[in-house]
Amino acid sequence: MGFDSNNTKLHSPESIRFYNQILGASDKVIHTLTHGHKPQWLKNTPPGPMFFQNNASARLNMDIVRNQVKAWEELGAVKQVATRPKIVSPLTLSTKTDTQSGKLKHRVCLDLSRSVNLYVKESNVVMEDLSAVLPRIQPGYYMASADIKNMYLNVKLAEQEQTYFGFSITDTNDIKIFPVWASRSNVNLAIADAGSKPIPTDEWQLAEEDFQRITQALSVIPTVDAFATKTNTKCEKYFSRIPEATAWATDFFIQTLQPKEVYYLVPPIKEVTRTWFALTNVPNITAVLVVPAWYSASFYPLFREKTCFNKFIEKHFEFKAAFQDSDHTIFNSEAKFNMLALLIRT
User: Fold this and answer.
1) Which of 38, 83, 84, 160 has the least C-beta neighbours within 10 A?
2) Residue 174 zone, left/alpha/beta (φ > 0; ψ -120 to 50; rest)
3) Are the C-beta atoms of residues 56 and 174 closer than 8 Å to each other?
4) What does the pLDDT profile of the chain (346 residues) look like in tens digits?
5) Are residues 259 and 168 in the same domain?
6) In total, how many domains does the chain have?
């Protein structure tokens, strides 16, 4: 079977006219609505044939999986095919407890991590949370939330690309799994545990040579590192996230900023918007703010609209960064995007 989504209203002539004439959508959006989504393959070449067995979570719950696939088929999102698709990826079953009803909720997903995802071009996507929204909310604003069921099935695939998104619901293996408890001192479990630790996004850091390049380009010497630890601070004085004996203070966001200091800020991505407002809401402050040069991120319009930088930005410096201790942080030393250093005076 494979994904189709040919009956979705998103691709109807009325929808295309709306996006084109009312919303003024880009040529790329109109092309996708007209012809379907086409993955951007590495080297512009799709991968060769592959076949994967469904993941254990799906194989052990095939009744749930088949019911979902039947619903997809009735929706027109998938179709049966006479020949095996070029890529057959595994299905997986995600299960969680509904916080309101206490009942188990199941979600069948197509796992592309070992197939298609390895052959498409990477693109930076920032998943924003409330920290990016709250600073912009004013009294009298309204908020709403929406949970769109089958949202991803609303965008159809281009006809020639559907063969790379196949899956199978045949149950050819009678596999029983008998869990056996093993000590956490087992070397293989220790390796697995280490690999399951979350990436410490709060502690990504630039290499010392990049810090020196920033200070030279912006002609300023920071005196306080606002997001640091004793092992990575670039200044004698620093604010730490958790209490440290050598820190000047803890938590940048609760500090009273001083005009006599020059603050160096390399905040977690989720805190960029909050950091900007914490700086610009205080007069007579000098700071160097370093962020990824992600032009599509929600925080980027705070700094620049078209060709004009914000009035608080005196200088800017875009550069290719080398990330310190990159094996243990969110960014690796071969990041393909640039960084942006902003000299801010409020």
Assistant:
1) 83
2) beta
3) no
4) 555 544 457 888 888 888 888 888 889 899 989 988 899 998 888 888 999 999 999 998 999 999 998 988 888 888 888 888 999 999 999 988 877 777 888 889 999 998 999 999 887 777 777 777 777 788 888 877 776 677 777 788 888 999 999 999 875 554 443 344 444 445 555 555 545 444 444 556 788 899 999 999 999 999 999 999 888 899 999 999 888 889 999 899 989 999 999 999 999 888 899 999 999 999 999 999 999 988 888 888 899 887 889 999 999 999 988 776 544 445 555 567 889 999 999 9
5) no
6) 2
Q: Which domain CATH number covers 13?
A: 3.10.10
Per the domain annotation, does 186 fall within a domain? no
Instruction: Please list, in sequence order, all residues whose beta carbon lies within 8 angstroms of the beta carbon of residue 100, skipping any fewer than 6 positions away.
Output: none
The structure tokens 């310190």 sit at 324
Q: State the CB neighbour count (10 A cutoff) for residue 270.
A: 17
Containing H/E element for 290?
A: strand 286-292
Non-local (6+) Cβ contacts of 58 within 8 A are: 65, 90, 91, 92, 93, 108
263 within a domain of the structure (yes/no) = yes
Question: In the beta sheet, which residues pair with residue 340?
Answer: 291, 318
Number of DSSP helices (H) and strands (E) in the chain, helices first: 9, 17
Do 170 and 245 share a structural domain?
no
Do you know the residue count of the chain?
Answer: 346
**Under 8 Å between Cβ of 342 and 299:** no
Q: Which two tokens stand for residue 111?
A: 């796992």
- Domain annotation covers residue 190: no
Beta strands 262-265 and 224-228 are parallel
Domain containing 55 equals 2-142+152-179
Specify which residues 343 forms β-bridges with: 288, 315
Reported as type and span, the H/E element at residue 102 is none
Token pair in block for residue 12: 């109807």
